[in-house]
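Please, why this fold?
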Amino acid sequence: MARHSKNNTANPIFTYHERKKKEEEKNLLDISNNFWLSCNTSKVKKDTIQKKLKPPSKNLICPITKKPLKMNELITINPEVIKNGDSENGGWVCSFSKKNIDHHKAVLLKKTGKIILKSFFENFIYGKKNSYDITVGEDDFINLEAGGTGIVY
């Protein structure tokens, strides 16, 4: 039985035995909801059978636009890789400046598949005749995002 102190707005004060009994009830409730325990597997099987699962789609769907992807829309990436003596896998470098692309903003040229640091792209390539013998317009490149933790702020 819960008792209250003189202040009626305070939380109830339980004895040791009352608190212990409440904790045991809570633990029993937690155990009954755990599907990985062998005593609860039949309950879970019945639930999954009752749900009708859809078969997976045969089309490859873009995770961002939710539209089906077509082979002619895909772009081949031709990154330049420099192998370091320390690691087996080398890092990607800018095709124009040969600097590492670690956490910098980069651009992918659609026509050639080359990856270039955004700062060099804006200064030397965008809208100008360049060493790749192509003029790059508004729709000829894709901005690449720097790697992150996956947390959106």
